[in-house]
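Exercise: predict the structure of this protein bound to adenosine-5'-triphosphate.
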Amino acid sequence: MTKTLRVLIVDDEPDIRELLELTLLKMGLAPVCAANVAEAKAALDGGGFDLALTDMRLPDGDGLDVVNHIGERGLDLPIAVITAHGSADNAVRAMKAGAFDYLQKPVSLAQLRSLVKSALKVEVPSARPSARQRLLGESPAIQEVLRLAEKLSRSQAAVSIGGESGTGKEQAARLIHELGPRADKPFVAVNCGAIPESLMESEFFGYRKGAFTGADADRDGFFQLAQGGTLFLDEVAELPLAMQVKLLRAIQEKAVRKLGASQEEAADVRIICATHRDLAARVEAGQFRQDLYYRLNVLPLRMPPLRELRDDIPLFADRLLQRFGGASAPRLTADARRALQDHAYPGNFRELENILERAVALAASPSLSRDDLQLTPCVEYSPEPGSGEPLQDYLDRVEREAIVKALEGTRYNRTQAAKKLGVTFRSLRYRMERLGVK
Ligand SMILES: Nc1ncnc2c1ncn2[C@@H]1O[C@H](COP(=O)(O)OP(=O)(O)OP(=O)(O)O)[C@@H](O)[C@H]1O
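Solution:
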């Protein structure tokens, strides 16, 4: 027989306590109630709980005191906080202190169910892959990323990964997924900038047969495909405002409705998003919804650019040479090594991969010299004096020119052009759409 799981409910309002208690009882759990921080601490010290739910506002302190107590005592217990509507700041503080999720009042039955389900999954041990397989590097900056990834993997809250293009944001997202309790469930990666606006809703939420012309069978969307697992929203800043509203609702309600369906279905997904843009600035500019920003930016993680990992470049280079050249991989001369360490890498890790893949393919001898690397000096930002060209326009122009040149050099073969530019096919397609390159 399986053990009945004990849940501690901390809330000072008797009505809410009762409601939560009844709901948990109906779910086959054993709730225990506390009306304030002191009672909660006493109950926790008695031990034997599998989950705790606490309100944020309590008569003798707040929910954070309960979260901190669990941390200080080293109790192995997931705790979620319940916050008043619109107090995302509190939720963020609780999450940083170690809470694994939060709910906003009024709490629905569906939300509670999905929270309990994922909380109990937190306890399930999973096969832990070596973080080393995804992100190499000994520098303090990478070590810090690995430490944080491990920590974030234990939470269910949304993670927002920032960093320049090619810094390993997707790798970090996969790592967080693989280290966490959802590891044996799907990881679905979506490039938000690459989906035409008219198809967004059906791509995210799926559709029922007959929902629109051409919908000749039911189809799952990203949320259904990621059920129980992680949905990785790459380039999240590119989501149109209308879609931001729908996404926020789905995340908040933990439920989605397929196009053409009358019923909602529960969506138990963990959201990890990434962008190379400054999301806070987009919020300021009115291009990104503040409420969604708060939802997504609960746990931020920043990927360092390669120029901050200079000491690791020889290690990266050796691994990459082995990957591309196998046992007969050429070796770098001391001068080539120095040149690699001094390079600026605007394309970050992906650019380093590209440089070495090309060098291995063209290598005519067992050693690679500085010249064999064909490092191109970085273009400097030097708009005409007084032209007043904004930085973003300048960068777009440089990017457009590089893409057009690569396309022309490959007779418009996008796969080859992407390789040449050191970006993925998806990334090239997205950039072409953004810049209007036909
Ligand atoms: N520290 C690292 N160790 C090993 N490989 C890395 C590291 N950082 C990045 N990479 C590699 O660099 C490439 C780019 O990584 P990834 O796609 O995760 O970057 P990204 O930041 O998501 O890029 P974009 O913003 O263009 O989508 C991948 O091949 C990845 O394996």
